[in-house]
Amino acid sequence: MSTQTYDVIVAGLGAMGSATTCELAARGSRVLGLDRFSPPHTLGSTHGQSRIIREAYYEHPTYVPLVRRAYERWAALERTTGRQVLIQTGGLSMGRPESSAVVGARTSAIEHGIPYEELSAAELRRRLPVFAADADTVAIWEPRAGVLLPEVAIEAHLQHAARLGAMIRCDEPVIRWRAEGEGRDEWIAVTTPRATYYANRLVLTVGAWTRELLPDLELPLVVERQVMLWFRPVRNPVAFTPARFPVFIWEYDTDRFWFGLPDIGDGLKLAVHHDGESTTADTVRRVVTPEDVAPVRALVRQHLPDIDGAPIASAVCLYTDTPDLHFLIDRHPAHAGVILATPCSGHGFKFASALGEVLADLALTGKSAFDLSLFRLDRFARAGRAAPASPAADGAS
After folding, report:
1. pLDDT tens-digit profile of 198-255?
2. What residues contact residue 157 under an 8 Å CB cut-off, 6+ apart?
3. Which H, E and C letters describe the chain, residue by residue?
């Protein structure tokens, strides 16, 4: 058989694609992974040194079984590769008592039996005095939340996939794909600047480049520019280390969120969530301006005064948003051999290790053990361009 023929081709080797490629290789599949750059890189959605992982998922209880499996798979990756990818810090979902961050986190915790504590404003100030929380701010505390290291995780997945026999081709973008044949005899042809490859299945995990590779679907996706900032403490630096400072998501106004992660060596990472301009993967403004910094500095000055200084670093990444801000995981409606798993609306990285299994299952068996109904493609046709749900944050994913 030609070396250009594979069981599965995975296009896009960021968070989801690297995990999927690794999982397929572990199952003995002939898998080709393609990426337009050399991951891990800084031009997509999965860079920035850290991501939040959390279990009491306020966005929807459906995510909880997936994130629980993700914890198991991240631990397995650490054991297999000897590389740490998760730092447990605990986490806070913060806001007014009626906020979606608080109500949703409590709902998921109760429905799935997740250990949690509900902290009043006074208790929050007592336990974590570095937070200058308003008198009406409360929090849901969950002990298993923490920090994922995205670049390390992607590198570990891809290196292990290669050791297991996967063919990894970097700096080789997919120009187009086409389906040949019908039904069980359908093959997928994938063309790059170097060659045309053939496979039984194609998994598209291309993030901000999704619409370009699926023009026939007219997907209602928006690519959003997301700015990330890092700050050094000006006082009490030990209070902001992973042993002392949890990851947090704070709904500081109705449907207005910011998030933070502790100093793991390069400063605290902070950002306002889902507040960026619409853009494209190829035209995004990469330069961070004072106008980008100002909203975060205002929140820092009000709520984290011990780090109130100029940022020491910044970066821009991309969110690819669906109208309801839930994932898109489904088959192409006209081609059963093509699986879409890509726009994660800024909160996908934490799930990548589990979604690697999910996508491998869909590619090899056509089904998954998890409830994926929330992520179906046809919801866009049913609901039109629905109003966005409450934003979700994971440290810019």
Report:
1. 999 999 999 999 999 999 999 999 999 999 999 999 999 999 999 999 999 999 999 9
2. 18, 19, 21, 22, 77, 356
3. CCCCEEEEEEECCCHHHHHHHHHHHHCCCCEEEECCCCCCCCCCCCCCCCEEECCCCCCCCCHHHHHHHHHHHHHHHHHHHCCCCEEECCEEEEECCCCHHHHHHHHHHHHHCCCCEEECHHHHHHHCCCCCCCCCCEEEEECCCEEECHHHHHHHHHHHHHHCCCEEECCCCCCEEEEECCHHHCEEEEECCCCEEEEEEEEECCHHHHHHHCHHHCCCCEEEEEEEEEECCCCCHHHHCCCCCCEEEEEEECCEEEEEECCCCCCEEEEEECCCCEECCCCCCCCCCHHHHHHHHHHHHHHCHHHCCCCCEEEEEEEEECCCCCCCEEEECCEEEEEEECCCCCCCHHHHHHHHHHHHHHHHCCCCCCCCHHHCCCHHHHHCCCCCCCCCCCCCC
State residue 183's pLDDT score.
Answer: 75
Mean of the pLDDT values across residues 169-175?
A: 98
Give the pLDDT confidence of 175-210 residue by residue, as tens digits: 999 999 887 788 999 999 999 999 999 999 999 999
Pairing of strands 196-204, 187-191: antiparallel
Comparing C-alpha atoms, which of 370, 375, 367, 373 is closest to residue 343?
A: 375
- Fold classified for 89-146+222-321: D-Amino Acid Oxidase; Chain A, domain 2 (3.30.9)
Dist CA 190 CA 196 (whole Å): 5
Please state, rounded to an integer, the average pLDDT across all residues of the chain: 94
Rounded Cα gap, residues 327 and 181, in angstroms: 29
Work out whether strand 51-53 and strand 146-148 pair parallel, antiparallel, or are unpaired.
antiparallel
Does the 5-46+151-219+324-383 domain belong in CATH 3.40.50.300? no
